[in-house]
Design goal:
There is one protein chain. This protein is mainly α. 46% of the residues lie in helices and 6% in strands. The strands form 3 sheets. A 5-stranded parallel β-sheet has the order 4-2-1-5-6, with helices on both faces. It starts with 11 loop residues before the first strand and ends with a strand. Bound molecules: flavin-adenine dinucleotide and iron/sulfur cluster. The site of flavin-adenine dinucleotide has 28 residues, from helix 9, helix 11, helix 14 and helix 16. The site of flavin-adenine dinucleotide (FAD) has 28 residues, from helix 9, helix 11, helix 14 and helix 16.
Length: 534
């Protein structure tokens, strides 16, 4: 075992955050194993208003503990502060101060965090601690801040498709010289299949908790047992080795059909053909380049078709990098907008899952059980409802940040604020992703088991998504009718007879008023007002 360096000889204190579990992290790159110390700390701070899903806490703490072991095995001295260590100040700044007092370093090195507010706090550390603090770029992404700023400069709109083509050229994925392989940049039109009846997607690869993870589950149950979600079904990888196995499993079992069923939803099949890799990418156990390399290799070997591989690579080098680029380019002002003036509180069933709307019940129940829902459930079920019902953007953003194991500010915020809520007025999406029950009925089997009828626009048993959809168009007419991409929805609205419009408006209002009155039996204990500060 490596002896800890004596205080006077410690040169650099290197801080590694819970989503920075990467061996060649910029903050670790030039480490001096004889003189430097790595600080890792599990801290709970009251910086956020809602409690994280219990599986999210287990995933991060367990992955941190395994990563610390890996660093130690590599001869690096790690000062690791556990959540319930006596004296833990439960804030990163506080733990840094305590570690400086323990080790007497002459400088601090850290990689930039994934939240703007954390970066602002970090910039104040030097003054607070009285030592130089070097904040290095997080270069675990394929597009640097500078590259994104160059692309965004002088553009009127930031459209994914333009960015994606640049990323294909920059990375060379699926390129044949200057042209896209297959003669097309995007095969999305092939990717809209509903799942055939009785079709069984591949089983998800689960990882049995080892002794370290089992101890973390007990810790989380003790301290955060009232938080949203459960730990019983915890099966996430918490080491790089297991995350690589999850990648291999995806490439072999799911990638070939990834594209075809990308937009499908099915009861009892929460993962379908999705990668289930975002939790590992976002904490650094996998890199975006290696997951794209693996998908591109599967295509080169004839093991997966082009529409699937292009679709997957687009999600990673396109959407993921674009979302991150926009976040850092536009924060902090980006989070402050509320273009549709939405102010309704979040209905309680987002926490309990108890609602008669079967699509919402299914998506939220799966989220409680797994800490995961796939993109179409997030966008077209929980997100679509929040948009149509006019939920306050900050309230639904806090929910997404709390309940998904892959959620970090840089990725959750633009997806929710821009893509789902249109709160940025069209910076990210050219029109709101508003849809009636017909879309959910087409892409899922949820409606067949629902007490509402997706084909009814109004009257008894009408699907609330239908009422809210038409109501949304009316309420936001002043803001949206001029949008060329909304021409068709408004044409359809204009076709409704005035009497039916009145009925829809009245029924939508009554439904919305009922939302705030949650039945007493539907309310479990509220989520704890505590969350983790990475
Ligand atoms: P797949 O569907 O198999 O996609 C493959 C990979 O592409 C993902 O692992 C992910 O890294 C990347 N990706 C795909 N779409 C996006 C996207 N829109 N933004 C960023 N990366 C993308 N993703 C997160 O990682 N964290 C979040 O907090 C998050 N919040 C979201 C909130 C809302 C309202 C919506 C609509 C989407 C959100 N997403 C978020 C994007 C997307 O839903 C998830 O990345 C995806 O569901 C993760 O599951 P998967 O690995 O099986 O992804
Ligand atoms: Fe959802 Fe409406 Fe279908 Fe019920 S009928 S599952 S509420 S879309």
């Amino acid at each position: 075992m490596t002896a800890p360096p004596q205080p006077s000889s410690v040169k650099t204190l290197r801080l590694v955050l819970g989503d920075q579990l990467t061996a060649d992290l910029s903050a670790l790159r030039d480490i001096d194993r004889d003189r430097d110390i790595v600080l890792m700390a599990e801290v709970a701070s009251a910086s956020s208003t809602v409690g994280y899903h219990q599986q999210k806490l287990v995933l991060i703490y367990a992955a941190m503990r395994h990563f610390a072991e890996q660093l130690r095995a590599d001869g690096i001295v790690v000062d690791y502060v556990c959540l319930d260590d006596p004296g833990n100040s439960q804030s990163l700044g506080g733990e840094l101060e305590r570690a400086v007092a323990r080790h007497g370093p002459n400088r601090i090195v850290v990689t930039e965090p994934g939240a703007h507010r954390a970066l602002v706090a970090m910039r104040g550390w030097s003054t607070r601690i009285g030592l130089p603090v070097f904040i290095r770029d997080d270069d675990r992404f394929l597009c640097s801040h500078r590259r994104f700023a160059d692309w965004a400069q002088d553009r009127k709109g930031f459209r994914l498709e333009h960015f994606y083509r640049q990323m294909r050229r920059d990375t060379g994925y699926l390129m044949d010289g200057a042209e896209p392989v297959g003669g097309q940049w995007n095969f999305d039109h092939d990717n809209r299949g509903a799942l055939p009846k009785g079709h069984r997607p591949p089983a998800r690869l689960r990882f049995e908790p080892d002794a370290i993870t089992t101890a973390v589950i007990a810790l989380v149950t003790r301290h955060f047992g009232d938080n949203f979600g459960e730990t019983e079904h915890f099966g996430w990888a918490v080491t790089r080795r297991d995350a690589l196995e999850a990648l291999d499993h995806f490439i072999a079992e799911a990638l070939p059909d990834f594209g075809r069923y990308q937009d499908a939803m099915q009861t009892g099949a929460p993962f379908l053909y999705h990668a289930i890799l975002s939790p590992y990418l976002n904490i650094g156990l996998l890199s975006p380049r290696e997951v794209c390399d693996a998908a591109a290799a599967a295509y080169a070997q004839g093991a997966a078709p082009l529409n699937a591989v292009e679709g997957f690579i687009r999600q990673v080098i396109g959407w993921r990098e674009y979302i991150r680029g926009l976040y850092w380019h536009l924060m902090p002002d980006y989070a402050q907008t509320n273009a549709l003036g939405a102010h309704r509180p979040l209905p309680w069933f987002y926490w309990s899952g108890k609602t008669a709307l079967n699509c919402l019940h299914q998506a939220i129940s799966e989220t409680r059980r797994n800490g995961y829902a796939h993109h179409i459930q997030r966008l077209m079920v929980t997100g679509n409802f929040a948009l149509l019902a006019g939920i306050e953007p900050a309230a639904i953003e806090a929910w997404y940040l709390a309940v998904y194991v892959d959620a970090y500010d840089w990725v959750e915020l633009p997806n929710t604020h821009g893509m789902v809520m249109f709160a940025d007025g069209g910076v990210l999406a050219s029109k709101p992703y508003a849809a009636s029950g017909a879309y959910i009925n087409r892409m899922s089997d949820y409606c067949a088991a629902c007490r509402y009828d997706p084909k009814r626009r109004s009257g008894p048993g009408a699907c609330p998504f239908n009422l809210l959809y038409w109501n949304f168009l009316e309420v936001n007419e002043g803001r949206l009718r001029g949008n060329a991409r909304m021409a068709m929805p408004y044409k359809n609205l204009d076709r409704l007879a005035p009497a039916e419009r009145d009925t829809i408006r009245n029924e939508a209002q009554a439904f919305l008023e009922g939302l705030t009155q949650a039945p007493a039996e539907a309310a479990p204990s509220p989520p704890r007002q505590i969350s983790m500060d990475l």
